## 1
Amino acid sequence: MKYRILGAFAAVSLLAACAHQAPPTTASTGTGAAAAPAGVVPGSEQDLVQNVGDRVFYAFNKSKLSDTSQATLEKQSAWLAKYPQVQVQIAGNCDDRGTEEYNIALGQRRANAARDYLVAKGVSSSRISTISYGKDRPTAMGDNEEAWAQNRNAITSVK
Amino acid sequence: MTDPHLEAALARKLRDHGPLLLPRRGLLVLSASALAAPVLPARALAQAAPPAPPQNPGAQSAVIDVDHARTDPIPIAIPDFGGGSELARGLAQVITGDLGNCGLFKPLNPASFIAGASPDQVPDFKAWAASGAQALVTGSVSGSGNSVRVEFRLWDILPGQQIQGTAYTTTAANWRRIGHIIADAVYERLLGEKGYFDTRIAYVARTGRRGHEMTRLAIMDQDGQNNKFLTNGNWLVLTPRFHPTRDEIAFMSYAGNRPRVYTFDLNTSRQAILGDFHGITLSPRFSPDGNSIIMAETRGGGSDIVVVPLATGAGRRLTDSGAIDVSPCYSPDGTQIVFNSDRDGDQQLFVMNADGSNVRRISYGKGRYATPVWSPRGDLIAYTRLGEGGFAIGVMHPDGSAERILSEGFDVEGPTFCPNGRVIMFWRSSAANREGVYSSRLVSIDITAFNERVVDTPTNASDPAWSPLAA
């Protein structure tokens, strides 16, 4: 068995899906975003969030990509083609209307669905890592349908 | 101690048997020896039976059938132990707490006590009976520091006899554990099955708002005391599970942003990743023999059940459905595995042989089913059920029959059995408000769905795991 002793980890912050709050239908999916504001570095995380759309959303207990989600991933693949040095992580997330353990696998299924789409659009799979936080890193606060819809997502972030 | 006969009996017992070492929890060295009954005065002798378990438990005795206890908890008197120390008072409180909280005993208010309780004399049974007691616990504490001696006796009031007498020697730091061991002895002698008070709970301590929480592995005694945090909170940690015999837990950590199953040595705090897997590894549980861990590994759009011998760390895949197969748990005899799968469309419970053969679905009720865990007795599987309105904790037989819901709520999840299978612990979370503020508590409940109680934790808590009894 390959053992690795842990215990002296630096306090690196988790790549949590909590940095950007936006309802599923608006800004962060990229539609109609304003022209690049001053100060946004092309190819950066901020560029991705503001000008492309960093996340896609899923129906309850599902991992199928909607038309809107596919459109967002199209933009992501074009953006990744433009900045070939960029590596990304896709984090799958779930609402809290499921159980913890199952939701980790469900979040991974969602992250994989998004990754597979990008790969099918020509992005090298070596540039994409995936992770799932299950229901433990909700983006939207509050427990209601609106928040749950936002929390069922796959969020792409620059590594 | 003043009774020369008792002293002689104790010395003889110790000579005959020597100190009995209970190796557990690292530094604890504890010895126990049997205590003979005190010499009975002439008045009591006439009616006293030998100090042995009653042969015919019934109305005349405090010994009862545990399944009938729900409507008839045993009234028991637990006066402060002799010796006058803080510890003597504390021991009585620990025992009172354990027996009272389990719901099968009714500790009497000390204000109602008529008789005194001298540990080395035969109790005034008539006076205790008049106080309403059917059983009486007496004890004394002597010594201090590294050598504390605790004697306890359990008396059956109506027949007027000693049921058990035991002396323990340990360090003062272990005093609460002695209290739990005594409570277990009372439970076992009066209910006829092993207790579960000398156990611990591992869980996930949560601090902060939803979505921004710090999570730490934590461990405490089953009564919520001696809480200790095991990890520093830098990484998300989930699902601690006890090894059946060693001071070790398996859990899931997001260390290095690489979510995997780890083991954690409770004596050294050493963590070790389990094996070398491509996918996320999650939902670990030890096999009953303690030689391997069964868990899930994500692969493609699903996850497989994988068994990992601790000696090699090399996983062997047991399921290959392409669906999400998670949350495996062995039957106590190790021949069967219950797990959670969405292979039929949504989450349901399945049982298979330990080699992965003969998979059959067992849950057919309304809603989705998750987090199955097999009772240590083998006769029940507890689970989380997810419905339209909320979650529920339930139990069913391993063939899926006789489903019973024990508790419901917005989010009740993740049952774990105490060692004798009589009590389940799970967590209960509230909905979060718009600021992400919510509560999450550990809750215990008897498998007959009575006596639901919150277990105190210093922070929000989830993912409880009940330890086995000490060896």
## 2
Amino acid sequence: MTRELMQLVVDGIVEHSAEVRTLALVPAGGDLPGYVPGSNLPVEWRTGRFNSYSLTGDGFEPAAYTISVRRQPDGDGGSLWMHQLRVGQTIRARQPVSEFPPVWSARRHLLLAGGIGVTPIVSHARSHARWNHDFEVHYVARDHVLAAELAAAAGDKLHLHGSRSDFATTLTDLLVRQPVGTHLYVCGPESMIDAVREAALAACWPSTRVHSEPFAVTLAPGEPFTVRTSRSGRRVQVAPDETVLSALDAAGLSVRSQCRRGFCGECLTGVVSGDVIHRDDYLEAADRDAGEQMLICVSRARGELVLDL
Amino acid sequence: MTASESESESESETRMNVLADDEYENSRIEDFPFPLEKASIEPRVDVEPALAPRSTAAGTWGGRALLVNHNYERCVRIRSRILDRDPVRFTSLPHMLPAQWDAMLFLMRRLGSEYPDDFALTRRADGWLWTNRRLGLEREFAFGDLSSLGMEPLEYIGRQVQEDLLLLDHRSARLYVDTVLVTFSMGWSPTFVVGMNFHEVHGTVPRVMDDGTVDRSERFLSTMPIGELYRRNPWAFQIGGRLDRSKDAFPEWTPKADAYLADPRLDTVGTDVRMRSELSHFVRLPLTGAVLYTISVQSISLEQIASVPEWSASSMRVIKEVPDDLVHHKGFHVYGPLVLPYLERSS
């Protein structure tokens, strides 16, 4: 299902350093939807191409969406595009996506940030401050670009570390002195996440209390491909941000559907030929392997797909 | 038992189709969400995006997520009375307070946009103003400040909607029913399920655990895009229009229902027996990601069903074709012998 994109206007830019800038984005019209702490904003930097940036507010009634972007000269170009934006320009974004939420029932929240991974941690800290939750923040970086924002939310619960080796000496002590019921959230370079997970495991933390990976399933865009309908003889292009179902709808070919998220099985369609990428939550493994049917509301294909329609 | 209760009971004993003060006044067929347009009773993930109007053989329904109809004042009054008498029907674990605020704002916004003549949520410099013209209420409140509401947020809004409300928290890859404000449940106990996970809650429903329906439903609910509303429409038959058919209140309503079933009044079965729709909406709330699950109870009489030939036919078909293992769960062993002869006679 293609959701409408939001039009956002760049309202303010703060250059923290040559590498990192913060953008404040306001709606071109209407109100901005609130969001769960730790959410990210998929920004369209080239038609159909999105990069996701963590929102740093607490999500409540945001007057602006703020994101901080690190310049990645060897990336695919999205961050460089973000770095050439000027105040007053309009950009397009999807609704915020929650993939790194706080655990509301936690007795205490231990927040660990490395480098630009600090952005969702700022969001969490602001939310915990709002709700008077018990929390503590550790921010590991050479250059603490968002230290002021974190300090405003966390006060003396914020601890700055200048290097990973410096932090490594305190990590074990930090882990063993947390009360039972504490949840840990780490965002940073993969090597830091691995090190924290390892140390938490060694300190007998249940893995379900250590959060670093997105766990919500979202309908990510994919590569474009072509659908041919064997009975009605139509050819329809499926864009990266579309589904087979929405593309057929748009072409005036209506197919029965219900949940449109790959669960109910209503849009199950026969596959005549094609290399299907199953993304549903309905078909059994054996059915997938057979490749004779697919749920066209979520599943995609490589190259040309011929459907029994 | 109070004087008013004994009065209403003796009255309804003599004439069942006089509406008692704990009963729902039947919906109009023109906007009743008739659940059997597809005439399938197989349990499955029976969800669809909400807010799309659906046409039936008698009219349309579904353009709105919340119900405010001719029963509004009546439902709100019945719920408040139950909550006053049995306060645990609203139970919320402490960590759900942010989700309660989230849910309250969501419901107020929806009421304001779906029924702008009756409800309004207005932003003020230092908070909000909530206006409920149906009940003549105005309340200024500050988000997060309990004293500005005088009670917890879900109870505040729960006393102003027709829907039962549940909040589900997602943690450790499971959904937990951590908040209930449920006074109109059908055969289950809201106070018993608080704190249970999604699997535990559905342990008594035949089939759905083994065939993976519960698993898929849980994954569906916990991965809905934030803010997108979905719906489903479970249903059942019942005797009379009593809204509160909870296990908690068994002693209040089962003796009368049993007595009726032992000696059904065949001349009045068309008005005594009703089809009950429990149209449910669910959404992941914007600020906490908690799942808000709303259930709005409506009913129509067999007589009303019989007035629409398509509804009558699909009701009869569903009762006749229900698989054996679901007969008891749907109560068809009890209601089938009442409903089938009536609908056959009237068609």
